[in-house]
């Protein structure tokens, strides 16, 4: 691993992005590798998770990563990793927003001391540029979120972020707009009531946007 490309000596956190094994693509040939091969097809490899996790642990032993973790994994796979891990996963990064609250999974992580990081905190808004989520009601314009935002003098985005952070979940929102970046950083400094937290969580409909089954039917990891 050539960390000089990033100008660093080690990673604070290194994650397995998806629990699937795809054919290796040399960075000199194509970077990032993406899902598809040169023929436009997905090529899978027969590599079990325990081998990948062992390789991740070697990064820790070599001082290349301080912490290692998982992303887009279900509870059964997390429990499997915990059976043989020399270094337990420190973080689970998952799609999480009021339309996909994933409470059983976050509760499991809390029991095992695994920190949870939420991506796509704004739900469909995060996928519009990819042509996805256009027919799903916007969380930023949802009446429940709007009413709570007005009650606190905050933006809907700040309420969505606070809904996560107040429950101990880290968030990683992104934006190309400087004003929104600043606003996102100001999502603390206020607390939602238990009733407001429950109302937001009540919007859950197990609606997942980031699912590799949309790329390749054999990659139905959330089945």
From TrEMBL:
This is NADP-dependent oxidoreductase domain-containing protein. Residues 3-203 form the NADP-dependent oxidoreductase domain. SUPFAM superfamilies: NAD(P)-linked oxidoreductase. InterPro entries: AKR, NAD(P)_OxRdtase_dom_sf, NADP_OxRdtase_dom. It comes from the Eukaryota. Pfam families: Aldo_ket_red. GO terms for molecular function: oxidoreductase activity. PANTHER family: ALDO/KETO REDUCTASE.
């Amino acid at each position: 691993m050539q960390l000089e490309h990033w100008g660093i000596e080690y990673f604070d956190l290194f994650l397995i992005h998806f629990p699937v094994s795809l054919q290796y693509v040399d960075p000199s040939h194509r970077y990032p590798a993406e899902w598809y091969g040169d023929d436009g097809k997905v090529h899978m490899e027969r590599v079990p998770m325990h081998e990948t996790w062992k390789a991740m642990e070697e990064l820790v032993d070599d001082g290349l990563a301080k912490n290692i973790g998982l992303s887009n994994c279900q509870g059964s796979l997390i429990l499997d990793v915990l059976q043989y891990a020399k270094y337990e996963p420190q973080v689970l990064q998952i799609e999480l927003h009021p339309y996909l609250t994933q409470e059983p999974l976050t509760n499991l992580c809390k029991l095992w001391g695994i920190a949870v990081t939420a991506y796509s905190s704004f739900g469909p808004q995060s996928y519009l540029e990819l042509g996805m989520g256009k027919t799903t009601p916007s969380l930023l314009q949802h009446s429940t979120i709007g009413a709570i935002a007005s009650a606190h003098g905050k933006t809907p985005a700040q309420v969505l972020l606070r809904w996560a952070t107040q429950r101990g979940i880290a968030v990683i929102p992104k934006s190309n707009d400087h004003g929104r970046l600043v606003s996102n950083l100001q999502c603390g400094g206020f607390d939602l009531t238990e009733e407001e937290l429950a109302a937001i969580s009540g919007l859950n409909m197990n609606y997942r946007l980031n699912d590799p089954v949309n790329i390749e039917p054999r990659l139905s990891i959330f089945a």
